[in-house]
Amino acid sequence: MLKDYASYDALGLAQLIKNKDLTATELLETAIAQAEQENPKINAIITKLYDFAHQQIQQGLPDGPFSGVPFLLKDLLGSLEGTALSNGSAALKGNISPSDSEMIARFKSSGLVIFGKTNTPEFGLMGATEPKAFGATRNPWNLNHTPGGSSGGSAAAIASGIVPMASGGDGGGSIRIPAACCGLFGLKPSRGRNPTGPYHTELWDGAAAEHVITRSVRDSAAMLDVVSGPDGSTPYPVPKETGFLACLDTPVRPLKIAYTVQSFVDRPVTDDAIKSVQHSVALLESLGHTVEQVHPYINADHLVDSYLTMYYGHVAADLEFTAKLLDTNFSNLDVEDTTKLMGYIGKKISAETFVSAKRRWNDFSQSMHVLHQEYDLLLTPTLGSEPLAIGALELGFLDKLGTKVVNAFGLQNLLLKTGMSRKVALNNLEKLPFTQLANLTGQPAMSVPLYWTESGLPLGSQFIAPMGDEKTLLQLARQLEQAQPWFNNTAANTLTKTS
Known about the structure:
The protein is of the alpha/beta class. The protein is about 40% helix and about 10% strand. The chain has 18 helices and eleven strands. The protein has helices at about 10-20, 25-40, 50-60, 100-110, 150-160, 175-180, 215-225, 270-285, 300-325, 335-350, 350-360, 360-370, 395-410, 410-420, 420-430, 435-440, 470-485, 495-499, and strands spanning about 45-50, 70-75, 115-120, 165-170, 185-190, 210-215, 255-260, 290-295, 375-380, 445-450, 460-465. It is globular and about 65 Å long.
């Protein structure tokens, strides 16, 4: 057993195995022991794959950069042959994946040992991880708060010291939001950088990407070297590129960075969010970067409408797909009332409305293109407030009752006409207003843990780069990591204080 297990990142653990300081089995048993100790407090792991992991080791692991390192998969999208993939829904409990998805195959090629799956909101739809099917995941920094979503289970598992790295997906901030909530590093790669096949050509029309959440910058970079590159399903592939880990050896050049604390959905943000960026600005300037406040032109109404149209449309399509998979009707699916309501709203949206909303994505890309003619990066808060309390995004009793009535009597058109569905969505987006932009433009973006609130909760800073420029993000993150180390400032060391 490795006593100081939580003090290593994934590459560090892999080096211990290469040096024969311990075996992959010993490392796995350490991770399992840590999971058994911490998971009852946080509910991060919902599927144990301990036997599967031991079989991986017995069959022989690939000689990759992470050979023998314990790893957790988010229970969404990632298809691991012969294991359950529920997507956070009671409707899909017991649904067994027939084969590995390409991302999972590439994860495995790196030598990772997969020993469990992590919690996620139903179909990954919320910025908090509180599915009815599996219960809420709690933030290790404060068990009364959310670890974010939709990769909240993965982030909580890392922050509690169960693993140094776990998988995530990001369709509206679902890597960056949990990273920000849990004091971790989270990179959303450029559109097309990582594979989506063979089950998908694009994820959420190209808005979503899969990668990992990590404690160290170098783990994220090394994993990008492993998994990046097109597959047979990629429609518009970014050319295969390597050297993401190697680029960390080159100091980042002095950058010209724009920053804003103005919400992209035109709602107020908290003082904590503003302070997080002010802290980052001061740090960046001390490192020799030029930082200037800007107000990029992003039409808030168009951003909200474009994102929600895509969101509702894909919920509707996902629920129809699920109904066919289970040989039942859409209306009979065992899904949460809010999920079903969003699916019904998606069914009411016309093809013309969907296409018109998708075309507006180009407006956002052009606005960011103009900004990047002058600035290397855009800095914003990752979150609009500190991590929310458990249940903060849950509907009140009357709203829940209203949702049931709307679903029962088919009143979704009324919600669309009165704008009630948009109002509810805006109330949720108000707390998470900064991340969706990079999903619609396809740009790479990262959340870096540079600030903790007075109450002791993390609140990350987001950086957005031009399309395809992950290396500048990673180099800057490495510089920030060295200037203000966060690796040992983890909830794994403080969990007992809040439990």
